[in-house]
Amino acid sequence: MVTTRYAVHPDDFKHYDTARVRESCLLDNLFIDDSITHHYTHYDRLIVGGVKPVTKPVTLEPIDQLKAEFYLQRREIGIINVGSAGTITADGKDYSLKYKEALYIGRDTKKVVFHPSKDGKALFYFNSAPAHTTYPTRVVTHADAETVELGALESSNHRTIRKLIVNSVIPTCQVQMGLTELKTGSVWNTMPPHTHDRRMEAYFYFEVPENHMVCHFLGQPQETRHIWMKNNQAVLSPPWSIHCGAGTSNYCFIWGMAGENLDYSDMDGLKLGDLK
């Protein structure tokens, strides 16, 4: 499955109703049996997708939007395992990923194959962006990641951030990815919120318990909107938009960015009292 998501002007976004907000920003049905989904966005040309190999290996084929001989002819890709331990083959070399581990694959890699796990529950979430040069393919484990703890239980935002595919861990052209795990009793992510007009961002929510949801907030700080999200759904955040959320339980999410720079700390902080 392939969709194209066009960029939205903030003045237009103010007039969107719930259905239009979801149509523009929510990425649903990311995982389809023995298939790859691709959401090609006009935000820094990031592609957000999911792979679910159940009964057979699935090959990353070029989509029409790329007009390329092979998918990574002009691109790089970051992949995070959100299912059972699985294997990805890149140009004939196998890379094994445990749950929540990441794989970066550089530009010019001609063939990428996702293999099913023994229990048929392999799930791979990915972000891909244009690349100006080629960097080495590499697995990033939890031991390799930069890990920090932020927030506090008293403010309902005690969380662990694992920076997996970031320039301080491995070299990349644009793609930056990591995951955040909220502690039991904490529900708020990315608090206090911020924007970063130099980069867009996508969130993928997972480990959302059954019968629970996450309310994701977006829009300009003085014109916020929200989307109610379920497990294994993703959402696009334009560069001018805030991105934060609160769940009815604790959960995890993967953040992915592409854009002007690779400075993780490049963000414009906001005061909670300024939000509307």
Automatic annotation (TrEMBL):
SUPFAM superfamilies tied to this protein: RmlC-like cupins
Cofactor: record remark: Binds 1 zinc ion per subunit.
GO molecular function, one term: zinc ion binding
Keyword entries, A-Z: Isomerase, Metal-binding, Zinc
Annotated residues for binding of Zn(2+): H194, H196, E201, H243
Pathway: Glycan metabolism; pectin degradation; 2-dehydro-3-deoxy-D-gluconate from pectin: step 4/5
Enzyme class: isomerase
Record bears the keyword ATP-binding: no
Enzyme Commission code(s) on record: 5.3.1.17
Source domain of life: Bacteria
Catalysis performed (reactions): 5-dehydro-4-deoxy-D-glucuronate = 3-deoxy-D-glycero-2,5-hexodiulosonate
Cofactor: Zn(2+)
Gene3D superfamilies referenced in this protein's UniProt entry, alphabetically: Jelly Rolls, pectin degrading enzyme 5-keto 4- deoxyuronate isomerase, domain 1
A Pfam family matched in the record: KduI
InterPro entries noted in UniProt: KduI, KduI/IolB_isomerase, KduI_N, RmlC-like_jellyroll, RmlC_Cupin_sf
GO annotation terms (biological process): D-galacturonate catabolic process; D-glucuronate catabolic process; pectin catabolic process
UniProt-listed NCBIfam families: PRK00924.1
Function: Catalyzes the isomerization of 5-dehydro-4-deoxy-D-glucuronate to 3-deoxy-D-glycero-2,5-hexodiulosonate.
Family the entry assigns: Belongs to the KduI family.
Name this polypeptide is given: 4-deoxy-L-threo-5-hexosulose-uronate ketol-isomerase
Organism: Chryseosolibacter histidini
Lineage: Bacteria, Pseudomonadati, Bacteroidota, Cytophagia, Cytophagales
